[in-house]
């Protein structure tokens, strides 16, 4: 019986249980407060159907220097949504890319023959 408990102890040390949801959430990408506050404000304005004000708030977040790739991605997404709601299709059409995606975009415009 003692061998059994020793074996269980060794197994527990060598193979710990998978991380909890909190551990995984802690590893999720986040944004810094100087980027997150204007972004959250823009999202709240979008919910209130105030797209032009939301676009201005999202541009504040865009002006923050040294953004991480994830922060840039999130800013671009919110700007796209706000621009679509504000009636600025040129801005809204520039789709965001996931962080780390460096592949060039293909042009969807027709080339002259």
Number of helical elements = 6
Report how far the terminal alpha carbons are from each other: 83 Å
- What coarse outline follows from CA principal-axis ratios? elongated
Rg over CA atoms, rounded to whole Å, is: 23 Å
Instruction: Please mark out the parts with pLDDT under 50 across 5 or more consecutive residues, or reply none.
Output: none
Percentage of residues assigned to helices = 55-70%
State the major sheet: none
> What structural class is derived from the secondary structure elements?
mainly alpha
- Mean pLDDT, all residues: 78
Total strand segments: 0
Please write the string of helix (H) and strand (E) elements. HHHHHH
Q: Beta-strand percentage?
A: under 5%
How would you portray this structure in words?
The structure is a single chain. The protein has 6 helices and no strands. Helix 3 runs antiparallel to helix 4 and helix 4 runs antiparallel to helix 5. It is 60% helix and 0% strand. The longest helix has 18 residues. With 113 residues, the protein is mainly α. The protein has a domain of 60 residues.
Keywords:
elongated; 113 residues; 0% strand; mainly alpha
How is the secondary structure organized here?
Elements: H1 2-14, H2 21-26, H3 33-47, H4 51-62, H5 69-86, H6 89-92
Helix pairs in contact: 3-4, 3-5, 4-5
In short:
The protein has a domain at 31-90.
């Amino acid at each position: 019986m003692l061998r059994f408990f020793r074996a269980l102890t060794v197994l527990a040390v060598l193979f710990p249980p998978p991380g909890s949801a909190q551990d995984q959430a802690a590893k999720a990408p986040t944004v810094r407060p100087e980027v997150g506050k204007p972004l959250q404000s823009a999202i709240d304005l979008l919910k209130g159907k105030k797209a032009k004000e939301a676009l201005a708030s999202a541009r504040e977040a865009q002006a923050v220097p040294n953004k991480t790739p994830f922060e840039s991605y999130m800013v671009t997404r919110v700007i796209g949504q706000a621009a679509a709601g504000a009636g600025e299709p040129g801005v809204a059409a520039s789709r965001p890319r996931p962080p780390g995606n460096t592949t060039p975009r293909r042009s969807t415009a027709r080339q002259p023959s």
